[in-house]
Write a structure and sequence with these properties.
The protein has 288 residues and is α+β, with helices and mostly antiparallel strands. It is built from 8 helices and 18 strands.
Length: 288
């Protein structure tokens, strides 16, 4: 690890993560035209955002930077894989890691891992379904579309908001901070699907001003010291494959979990591989 990366990582341990995210929320929701247009134009230029895909291409039409950042795409910009046995990517982004959950451990980076139990909020019973299953960690950069969609049709079973730190989720920090995804604030959404339980974990990060779901709205903030839990029984939300399920207000990471012997990832579903929302990332196992 270089001296620069070491210093940046050490700095993140002492930074006031949540205060910085609150300040980011203020700036990104500011509706001052000159300020928000400056921010929008800067991001478009720096990250080469493809505005041809946006449903609204006039930056003046966005009330704030956050409205731009969570912009809607044209219907034709992303195609959801139609095959009934295919898993659709829930987001644009890059695969951070993907593979098998080995003895309850999820691989983060060389020499680093965390447990399913930790990731899902410390409840070992909740984690049982995913032991020896598969995981995929997908990183969304500032240039990406920041709405999250369903990998396949599912009925919401429960949602858990787990407070924590807000370390950056860029490659350098993921490679250097142990158990990062089990330490950061996150929202866990567990669905019943035709191949069993599926967990979608929306991981917060520094400068992520909030995490939302379509059935609840803004889940965080507020950030509190204890875990919050919602169970859905009567009138549980049913979301179809490809439908929007949530969004990040600023970029972060989504982790997808499936149970053992239910799903195989595509052969090219490997660390560093870029993704587009809706493309096939895996298939149902033949004997499920």
């Amino acid at each position: 690890m270089s001296i620069k990366v070491t210093l940046i990582t050490l700095l993140q341990y002492i930074l006031p993560h949540h205060l910085l995210s609150q300040l980011m929320r203020f700036f990104t929701h500011c509706e001052h035209k000159t300020w928000k247009n400056l921010m929008i134009n800067s991001i478009i230029k720096i990250y080469k955002v493809n505005m041809d895909e946006a449903n609204e291409q006039d930056i003046n039409a966005y009330a704030s930077f956050n409205h731009f950042f969570t912009r809607e795409l044209k219907e034709s910009a992303r195609i959801i894989v139609k095959s009934s046995d295919s898993i659709a990517s829930p987001a644009d982004g890059v695969i951070s890691q993907a593979g098998i959950i080995s003895q309850g451990d999820i691989f983060q980076a060389k020499g680093k891992s965390f447990t399913v139990t930790e990731l899902l909020g410390g409840d070992s019973q909740r984690a049982v379904a995913f032991n020896e299953g598969v995981f995929s960690t997908i990183y969304l950069s500032p240039k990406d579309y920041h709405r999250l969609h369903m990998p396949l049709t599912g009925t919401l079973k429960e949602m858990i908001h787990i407070p924590g730190r807000l370390f950056s989720v860029n490659v350098a920090t993921v490679n250097s901070v142990p158990r990062l995804f089990a330490r950061n604030e996150r929202v866990v959404c567990i669905f019943d699907t035709e191949v069993g339980e599926m967990a979608l974990i929306l991981v917060g990060a520094i400068f992520v001003s909030s995490i939302e779901t379509v059935w609840h709205g803004v889940v965080t903030p507020p950030t509190i010291s204890s875990v919050r839990h919602w169970q859905y029984t009567d009138d549980a939300p049913l979301l179809r494959k490809g439908e929007e399920m949530g969004r990040f207000n600023m970029g972060s990471t989504i982790i997808v979990l499936f149970a053992r012997n239910k799903v195989d990832w595509e052969k090219n579903h490997l660390a560093g591989h870029p993704l587009e929302l809706g493309q096939s990332i895996g298939k149902f196992k033949s004997a499920v």
